[in-house]
Design a protein that fits this description.
0% of the residues lie in helices and 44% in strands. The chain is globular. It is built from no helices and 24 strands.
Length: 417
Amino acid sequence: MSTPLVRRLSIAAALCVAGPLALAALPASPVAAGEMTTDGLYAGAGMRPAGSVLELDVTGRGGTASNSSAVSLNITATQTGGEGFATVYPCGTSRPEASTINYSRGETIANGIIAKVGSNGKVCIYTHAPAHLIVDVNGFFPAGTDYRALPPARLLDTRPRQRTADGRFAGDGVLRSGRVLQLDVAGRGGTASNAAAVSVNLTTTQPNAAGFATLYPCGSSRPEASTINYARGETIANSVITKVGAGGKVCIYTHAQAHVIADVTGYFPAGSDFRSLAPARLLDTRPGFRTTDGRGAGAGQLRAGGVLQLDVTGRGGTSSSSGAVSMNLTVTQTGGEGFATVYPCGSSRPEASTINYSRGETIANGIIAKVGSGGKVCIYSHAAAHVIVDVDGYFPAGSDYRPLTPARLLDSRPDAT
């Protein structure tokens, strides 16, 4: 198996759900420069106060349809005023006992999510501690499509005295180093018993050492891929689409001992357009590491300001006609504070960020990326970094999902006007 990707930060953290828990501060990292949003709306509105809810118009903006039932978003919290979390959920519903992103004081961190659209074409964003928020959209599902978007529902929380949507997989204790947890996902939290793939937000907290966790379909071998990377004591989340395995289960492996939390946000029924895959590595720029087919291996650190063109179609199980790919992007051994942006090759680099990092950090984020010219996606890095990409599924051309070049829908920072 590959050497674990390990964050170079030392963070004392624990997941915030019902109240703030102590995390150590991180220096803020730059995100894509504060430009106006795609249409000038929701630009420069100011820091989101603690305990506030923002109602964000997402339909009919940035290329989304007015009848979108779900949107693929990248949410970034920055210049955070304390330890906390943010939750994205459909407006018109109660705020769920779930978190989308977790942050420490002064941190910049991003996470991708497929969010169900609520009343009047809006999603709601709750902020536990003060933070500036940035939201980029990279695709949508029109009404009547295969994807079944759900309000977030907790399926797993290993911490003591915590709850899940149905009381199962609650408080069972820390997942030990090198162990695998088999999690029932089909028929829970609103998912169908025949779900072929689920959209999950996975969080690790209170790990006893640096390491990584991998989410994959039960019944298959653990892949040479990582879903999430953590430092000792750190709380961090990442959203992925994962294939459902044998018995309606997904498997969670953790390299170091850690508590694990999983929230489901939607699913694809059997026979849907989405083709879920066991994770496969398409890129690893570090010397001496492998990819699924030997391509994109050991190419060397992506230099600051550089753009890497990555072949994603016809590799790792994807089709040569893929219109969009579901992938997990990891940056490691970063040379400074910065961000990376994934976008379709052949188009201009958008004013958006996919992932944010500090010097020497390892961090991952899931994204559904539109495939560009020549079957490639482009990866821009603001600072020098090694880059790793794992693919976990794809949408064929002409499928229900409508991929977009990322577009900014919200930037609360004052220089975004």
